[in-house]
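As a warm-up, study this chain.
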Amino acid sequence: MLIVWDVETAKSLYGAPCKEQVNEIKFFNQSETKILAVLHNGVQVLTIDKQNKKITSLDVNFGNAKRVFTCCAVDHNDQYGYVATKTGDFYEIALDKAVFKRVGPVKKLFSLGITSIKQLPDGDLIVGAGDGSLGRVSVDSMQVIAKS
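Now compare it with the structure written out below.
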């Protein structure tokens, strides 16, 4: 179950069953009712329905791609989400329609999978890999522009 709690009152507000293990969730930056949930084998855009006290979900369509998802980032304007994989790539998804748009990084995977992904103030992504390396990825070109 995914349950949203009111920390001040220690009461649960909304709940939804989950199909599988949830690896990470992120609230949208501009909305208190939208959440991006990274499941083991999929991704969902969740919407809190305050009136009916429940959470509705929309599965992201990745076509034929099969990945184990690890973590996510939501862009500053809530237009795109970035979900990372154990394969070492990440997917850009349009959050309004929950559809896969692009895959990155171009031409080079991160070794031992991606364990952390965050968006920088300028829009680029900072990616942490399982081998301990860090990379900066341009969201415009989806290419690694710096790696250490």
